[in-house]
Inverse folding.
């Protein structure tokens, strides 16, 4: 499996990268808690949702093949479709690093997770990162096939933004950006999606490379005052094809800004080809704690470095090395 499609490549936002003003003075991992100290981090945690599949799988004592639970007390409010097959848990070695663990699996033309039950609040900005593995090309049997749909009114009468394998549509549907999906079938691909309706902005990256970058996606009048949210994520085909296609999803992160933490094994961001966002447990201007989930989900073969993105997506060029005497080596 190629490293560039296995793990996100460098996250270049513009031809010339601007760098975060955050200053990291120390970073260490102890008892699976990452503690970062410094200043200029900002006062509020940006993360409103995290789902690594594994926690739900373990907490519910699920087995491979069990359907994903839905409801107010679950991670997902709606995880299936009346026109397709519900998502289920899979537990095998088809993970990002080839070691046995849990991920989501769906079969057929509509393999989707619906609206997540977020912990926090969203307004007009939202950043989403997730991993997607299709068993075949999402264009192989035609159609317009959604990876993610963003709404701002639950009944769908407001703003509607959709990213498919061949284009991105927004506004009232008249704004269209035509770009084919650039991922690799049969491999794990990192998807990133950012929307800012206050600035008419929608951006998409696949495996760290910019795919869509729009600044003409206005909010529909009826949606003004309503926060954006994920209406579905996965693979959504509207016709009768893709009956045997498998869709795998994992490690879904949602934030109310581009601000986040990523881990890399490279000392500079410009040389980074391996990075992962980490779930945040607390955030202040001087101290951040996170759970780096040092399990079979993430492969890092060398020293670990911290990168902090600010609200605008700027990131520190020089990574801060983590003090982690007992961090495992997942190459072995």
């Amino acid at each position: 499996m190629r490293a560039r499609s296995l793990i996100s490549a460098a996250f270049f936002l513009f031809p010339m990268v601007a760098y975060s003003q955050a200053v990291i003075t120390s970073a260490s991992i102890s008892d699976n808690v990452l503690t970062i100290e410094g200043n200029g981090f900002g006062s509020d945690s940006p993360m409103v949702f995290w789902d690594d599949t594994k926690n739900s799988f373990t907490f519910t004592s699920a087995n491979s093949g069990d359907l994903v639970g839905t409801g107010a007390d679950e991670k997902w409010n709606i995880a299936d479709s009346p026109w397709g097959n519900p998502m289920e848990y899979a537990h095998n070695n088809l993970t990002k690093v080839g070691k046995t663990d849990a991920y989501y699996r769906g079969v057929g033309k509509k393999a989707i997770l619906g609206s997540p039950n977020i912990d926090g609040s969203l307004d007009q900005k939202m950043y989403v990162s997730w991993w997607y593995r299709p068993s075949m090309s999402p264009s192989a049997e035609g159609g317009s096939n959604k990876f993610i749909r963003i709404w701002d009114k639950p009944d769908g009468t407001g703003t509607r933004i959709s990213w498919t394998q061949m284009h991105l549509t927004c506004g009232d549907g008249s704004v269209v950006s035509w770009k084919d999906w650039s991922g690799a079938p049969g491999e794990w691909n990192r998807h990133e999606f950012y929307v800012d309706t206050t600035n008419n902005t929608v951006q998409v990256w696949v495996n760290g490379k910019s795919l869509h970058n729009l600044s003409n996606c206005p909010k529909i009048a009826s949606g003004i005052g309503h926060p954006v949210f994920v209406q579905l994520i996965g693979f959504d085909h509207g016709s009768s094809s893709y009956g045997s296609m498998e869709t795998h999803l994992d490690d879904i992160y949602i934030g109310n800004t581009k601000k986040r933490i990523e881990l890399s094994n490279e000392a500079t961001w410009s040389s980074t080809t391996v990075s992962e966002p980490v779930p945040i447990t607390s955030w202040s201007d001087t101290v951040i704690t996170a759970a780096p989930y040092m399990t079979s989900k993430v492969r890092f073969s060398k020293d670990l470095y911290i990168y902090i993105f600010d609200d605008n997506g700027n990131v520190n060029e020089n990574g801060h090395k983590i003090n982690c005497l007992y961090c495992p080596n997942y190459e072995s």
Summary: Confidence is low (pLDDT under 50) at residues 1-17. Helices lie at 3-6, 54-59.
